Amino acid sequence: MSITSRIIVAIAALSLIATYFLPFWFIHLIAPQYPEGLTMEIWLNKLSGQVEIINGLNHYIGMAKVNEDMFPELNYLVYIIGAYILLGLIVALVGKRKLLLAYLVLTVIGGVAAMVDMYQWGYKYGHNLDPTAPIQVPGLSYQPPLVGHKKLLNFDAYSYPDTGGWVLVSAVVVFFIVWLVEQRRARKIIPKKTAWATPLTILSVFLFQGCSVEPEKIAYGKDQCNECRMTIMDPKFGSEVVTKKGKVYKFDDAHCIVQFLKAGNEKRENIAQIVFMDYQDQGRFLNSNKVWFIKSAQLKSPMNGNAAAFADKKTAETQAVTLKGDILNWEHLYNTL
Amino acid sequence: MKRLLIIWLLCSSFFAYAGIIHVGTASGVRTLKQAIQLAKDGDSIYLHKGLYKEGHLVLTKSISIIGIDQPVLDGEGKYEILTVSGHDITIRGIHFSNAGYSSLYDYAALKVIDAQHVIVENNTVTNAYFAIHFDNSSYCVIRNNAIKSKYTTEQSSGNGIHLWKCDNMVVKSNHIQQHRDGIYFEFVTNSVIQNNVSELNIRYGLHFMFSNNDVYINNTFRDNGAGVAVMYSKKVEMYKNRYEHNWGASAYGILLKEISDGYIIQNVFDENSIAIHMEGTNRIEVSKNSFRNNGWALRVQASCNDNTFQWNNFTGNTFDVATNGNSVLNHFHHNFWDKYEGYDLDKDGIGDVPYHPISMYSMVIEHNPIAVMLLRSFIVSLLDRAEKAIPSLTPETFLDDKPLMKPYRP
């Protein structure tokens, strides 16, 4: 293998160290009585999140209590990952392509084994119910989804890899790409330069497909502004705050979104994105980090924020002349409203 | 003699010669545009019956335009029909039809900008985006107009009577329907809204923002999307209005937000999802109102302080009062509650035990809206009874210590 490939393999192997400090899987439950949702994170060596509340809920339907002592895996997972890191470094040092393939197969086997293990736990939990439980629904099991979404009674259960899990997945993807590149080079099908092309496109597809929380369409005449409680009517000034958990707050005016953020009921670190309706194309949201505002008394927005969002500075500048307004970026607007 | 001369001089200045220009098929002047060009300050234009398609007209002279037998000015769906600016102008008895729509400009059937002493009365406005729109004007009267739009999408309908940055205005005896907001006030001070009927509007019957020292009396707000919104205003007085049948998931009789030092007196709230919803409301007197057959009569959020509720009648409401807070700094006394089960041994017309208007169940619903499913179930009434006997969850200080035995009658 080339020296670059070997360095990449080493870095990817070392990146697995991050999984020690990050949760690698999470289970999230949403129900009308828990609009914010309940989350349980699974780490290599512990559980965290609202485990107690989930346990409290589970006892009604007769599920066993979840605690760390029940999972022997939590004691030795740390060493397994350690072994993988070591192996990865060995592969990088030796630099044999065949060895990399073996390593790749081994990681995939490890991943599958982990999934099987999780499925078994889930099955056991969902099916072994206490026969004396207060709520009994004949024939219903409560097995959480392995990956994805499932409806259990009034709960929406989501189960996805958490940050650590994604680190693991990306490491495997990197190993795979390196192996693919080396394979193609070895066969001399294509010159060195383009050897990376296909794998990189595959990688970029993977990356951009990442789990993103999207803004929602505003239902004009039905949705209420989260801050001033008015029914949202004017498509020119709509905006939204989207949290990392996918909750969407809608607003009818820049003034309201700023008031909402200043009140601080939703922590800054939980906010995934802040978007504004494009003043000129009212079917399109613009992200707050690349939007220009015109603030002008002539705009007469619903709550007197009088700020309109534009996609690029040039358009904003020409419009600002007709509207006799000032041009601001989001930060500046936030501080003036 | 000198005195007579002075009187004659005065009179002659009063009865200064005012010309009349007739517009119609029978007269020399065929278009209103021509008439406006010919007119001098103080003249009147009599617009006779007929259909006039004249695009966009602008009027800046102090004249009266008076319609005879409802002549129609048609904007053909393209133009703002009449833009007025100046002082001492009257627009009477004209039917404005099909004003234009634009997503960027607030086109109106009749727009008045930077004007004083304008009277707009007895007109009909149909199919307008904005019907009557006043900007930056004062001492104007909007009276006896019939305004009706047709249902289009929310975005393509403007407000019926829209006032922005005005002062000393009177909006009286108008009938507005099927607009976005029936009557809209923003930055309007020292004004009166009286005897209007605002119904079937997509959003609010009356929308009131940043407007201080105003009074609205004797209006009816019926079947609007979300009732009436009064927000960010001081010293607003609301007397003898009717709020009827504003039903829906987020529909109110009145939505009060950030309001202080006002009065809500002798109003009738009939069949609204929430008769009064209060947020950030301070020092309001709510008295002598009737709350009948509403889902919630009052929803007082924790951010409301120092409001007084007295001499009101609560009958047939699912919930009399709901709140999401505990420390309640509002005063309730001398109200009639149909759910009150106390007694009056000393026969002074006032119950001898205080009434707790907040039921435990309403507290539960504040936290878990879905629990409304259990409404009127046996277990819920049981819980409420238990709670009444031994209050534990409901705010203890939230009570009417002088509940009336019989409904209040003025």
Automatic annotation (TrEMBL), chain B:
Pfam families: NosD (PF05048)
Record Gene3D superfamilies: Single-stranded right-handed beta-helix, Pectin lyase-like
Keywords carried by this UniProt record: Signal
Alphabetical list of InterPro entries matching this protein: NosD_copper_fam (IPR026464), NosD_dom (IPR007742), Para_beta_helix_rpt-2 (IPR022441), PbH1 (IPR006626), Pectin_lyas_fold (IPR012334), Pectin_lyase_fold/virulence (IPR011050)
Signal peptide residue numbers: 1-18
Domain Periplasmic copper-binding protein NosD beta helix: 144-342
UniProt protein name: Nitrous oxide reductase
Organism encoding this protein: Flavisolibacter tropicus
